[in-house]
Amino acid sequence: MEETFLPAGYQAPAGSSNYLRLQQGANKFRIMSKSITGWEDWTNERKPLRTKDYPVVLVDQTKPAKHFWAFVVWDYKDNEIKILELTQRTIQDAIMALYLDENWGDPKKYDLTITKTGEKMETKYNVMPTPPKPVAGEIEAVYIGMNINLEALYSGGDPFGKKQTTERQVIEQSEINRAINPNIEPDIIPLEADGLPKF
After folding, report:
1. Buried b / exposed e across 18-28, counting CB within 10 Å, b at 16+?
2. Beta strands, E only, the chain
3. Would you place residue 192 in the very low, low, confident or very high pLDDT band (cuts 50, 70, 90)?
4. Mapping DSSP to helix (H, G, I), strand (E, B) and coil, where does residue 175 land?
5. CA proximity to 177, closest of 191, 163, 159
6. How far apart are the first and last CA of the chain?
7. What are 34-68's pLDDT values in tens digits?
8. CB 20 within 8 A of CB 83
9. Which helix (H) or strand (E) holds 171?
10. Cα separation of 109 and 32, whole Å?
11. Of 130, 136, 151, 189, which cross-links 111 as Cys (Cβ 3.0–4.6 Å)?
């Protein structure tokens, strides 16, 4: 039997990103945060310009700025916390309808699946909720530990730039502190955001 260059059934891994990009087919996620909203344009270098209020300074005067929503989500496909930015009016309207419906309400209380079909001008989106249920505790813990700053999007900053110390890092640092000075009680050591003790 002739050997193949790559293993049978091989697929290239998807590029890792902190942002959820809607792919063809079903995109299931859980909204973890409040949203921020505003207006978005793009520079000639393909960098986003976002403001809270319209009008944004338009790079291309022939194209209007897009109204965006952005919020933190749990991406079930990659099992990761990401940011989802929506400029598609049909998706915004569908989520708004759920939000205003007394049977659904706050979209942070249930999973959503956005199904994307078609391409370019023929692209269509369908938004489907699942019955409300609490978010899994481990997902909530990951989200809280990341301390994401959505407001950084307005200034072109990195919302993921400041990471909060995880519980594991606190425990590990506490064990190091005890090794250095056994007389220090680990649970009363004040820690900085980076996990280092305040002395």
Report:
1. eebebeeeebb
2. 25-31, 36-42, 48-51, 66-75, 80-86, 111-117, 124-129
3. very low
4. helix
5. 191
6. 67
7. 999 999 998 888 888 899 987 667 788 888 889 99
8. yes
9. helix 167-180
10. 9
11. 130
Mean pLDDT of 123-140: 96
Would you state the torsion angle of the CA atoms of residues 32, 33, 35, 36, taken in this order, to the nearest 10 degrees?
A: -130
Q: Write down the residue that tokens 């091989």 correspond to.
A: 10
The DSSP code for 162 is: S
| pLDDT at residue 90 is higher than 70 | yes
Q: Is the pTM of this model over 0.90?
A: no
Closest C-alpha among 68, 66, 45, 41 to residue 150:
68
Tokens of 41: 């344009």
d(CA 145, CA 49): 28
- pLDDT of residue 165 exceeding 70, the answer is no
What is the predicted pLDDT for the residue at 64?
87
- C-beta atoms surrounding 136 within 10 Å: 11
- Residue 25 Ramachandran class (φ > 0 left, ψ -120 to 50 alpha, else beta): left
Residue with tokens 């506490």: 174
Which tokens is 145 given? Answer: 């530990």
Supply the DSSP symbol for 141.
H
d(CA 107, CA 96): 9
Six token digits for residue 82 = 């990401």
